[in-house]
Specification:
By secondary structure, the chain is α/β, with parallel strands linked by helices. The chain has 11 helices and 11 strands. The strands form 2 sheets. Strands 1, 2, 3, 4, 5 and 11 form a 6-stranded mixed beta sheet that branches.
Length: about 280
């Protein structure tokens, strides 16, 4: 059976999915038609109801929870992993609420946008760009500040940018929960046993990658060609952890909290008639 599978070309995702898409582990008869795209493109694809399985920003989950169910394995959660707000200069007292400043954000449906909205509810001037264009937009004066994710958190200082805030710290202080950045969802019109099988295969793929680490799969290098190897490793070590193997009770609680918060920003029923998690 072939399922459409979508994830990002970032090192954490290619590290997790490499073994299963290249047949290095038992896939229990499943094959995968793979599409790689940046996370906001993935969000839009899922919003349109396309792929069987996809990585999404957890910030999108309130919008698609009626059509997709969250799998246990493959996600990105943790502490100290949140998006960063950066700028060209140190902040001034009048910058406190960011009113009047233009902020570059990595996609309307991203968890970064949700966390930013929670931390800075009065900020209204927003520009949405692909995540890899945020630093350039700030350096080029298109935006006064920008929210960076992924490997950019390891490179912004070398480019002359300074950190104004860690949006993950705000989330952790307010909720006490780890930060749910992105997760793997599967269409809920697929059989539950197929979801369980898919989840087992993802976990098996990641376990294989962990066994081989610190060896980096060629798949990771292939899709991170312009990234220094040390940055690839920092990326993997920050975003791939025990929650990536299984959400577990703590991970589920964090995702549920974000689902509640996100639904308050975009009101819609969470629904007791269906399960959110596998």
């Amino acid at each position: 059976m072939t399922l459409s599978l979508c994830f990002s070309p970032c090192p954490n995702d290619t590290f997790i999915f490499d073994a299963m898409v290249h047949g290095r582990v038992d896939t229990e008869g499943l094959q995968f038609d793979v599409t790689l795209a940046d996370v906001e493109t993935l969000n839009r694809m899922v919003l349109a109801g396309g792929p069987d399985i996809s990585k999404i920003s957890y910030g999108l989950l309130p919008r698609v929870v009626a059509e997709y169910r969250v799998l246990e394995a493959g996600g990105a959660l943790g502490r100290g992993v949140g998006p960063l707000l950066v700028a060209r200069r140190e902040p001034l007292p009048e910058d406190d609420g960011l009113e009047g400043l233009t902020i570059a954000l990595p996609g309307r449906h991203t968890t970064a946008h949700m966390l930013f909205s929670l931390a800075y509810p009065r900020a209204q001037r927003k520009v949405f760009l692909p995540f890899h264009e945020i630093e350039g937009a700030v350096l080029g004066g298109i935006a006064d500040a920008g929210v960076i994710i992924h490997e950019n958190r390891f490179t912004y200082a070398a480019k002359g940018l300074v950190r104004w805030a860690d949006l993950g710290e705000h989330w952790e202080a307010e909720t006490g929960q780890p930060i749910p950045l992105g997760g793997i969802v599967m269409r809920r019109d697929r059989p539950v046993e197929l979801m369980r099988k898919t989840d087992r295969v993802i976990r098996r793929s990641l376990e294989y990658a962990f066994e081989k680490y610190p060896e980096l799969p060629g798949y990771v290098r292939q899709h991170a060609q312009e990234m220094d190897e040390s940055v690839m490793r920092q990326h993997i070590e920050l975003y791939v952890n025990r929650y990536s193997l299984s959400l577990g009770p703590a991970g589920r609680a964090a995702v549920w909290r974000l689902l509640e918060v996100g639904s308050s920003l975009h009101p819609q029923p969470l629904g007791g008639a269906f399960e959110v998690f596998l």
